[in-house]
Write a structure and sequence with these properties.
Elements lengths: L10 H10 L3 H18 L10 H13 L4 H17 L31 E3 L1 H28 L9 H25 L1 E3 L15 E6 L5 E7 L10 E3 L3 H6 L7 E6 L2 E11 L1
Helix pairs in contact: 1-2, 2-4, 5-6
Amino acid sequence: MPIPTETSLDLNEAYSLYIDGLKQGQTRELYQDLRRFVQWCGTTTKIASLTPQTVASYAEWIGRRGGDPAKKLAPVKALLVYLKRKELIELSLAPHIRIPKGKGKRSSGTASGIEPVYLTQDGFNQLTSELELLKIERIKIVDDIGRAMEDKDFRENAPLDAAKERQGFVESKIRELESILNVAVVGEKGGKGQVRITMGKKVRLKDASNGKLRSYLIVHPREASPSEGKLSSESPVGKALINKKQGEEVEISAPKGTIHYLIERVYG
């Protein structure tokens, strides 16, 4: 299969591309773990829309399922490294696949001291719509499980197994979205004279080495979409920009060397 030159691939296509390039003996061994990741994210999800939050949430979900999470996550990490190396995604997502060390305490979103999640209005609306669709799918999956259970031979009931696994994916994503929306703070436009960079602000940067201009909207990692100019606040550039002011210079360490930007304008 030829390597595409654009990031319009969906996850299913990216998976097929990656599998085609593997040695024949490796394919069967990796199939189950990779398919689980693809199905959890959604087979038609565009790879350009994957975010650090998405892959981190998947790693957390795998950790709760038991077994050896390191073994289950290694193929997914390899897939993400491959996509980045082929320049099919802009963000380096593999480092966000972290092996869970323990269950820890889960926050309910109501306790005092909870850190807010800053979202743009568009991002808040998008996550709300996604949550509504997942809750509709949740009802359909219950019906699918009911129909599959009519087959009394549970030992070899592939439809039942598939429906239960999909139910796990959907419930995990519902919990993730609810935890974000419960503590979400929708960014508002700053008043005149407000030039400090925060979530939801637009920035125009000038590359000190060649004078090229770049414009970004700083967003929560869940909203990040490099193809649309939406830059994650957790990315190297995003972290360097947060709380900086218009007119300041920032320095970012990148694989190809250090990049210097002048913050020309902060607005929005």
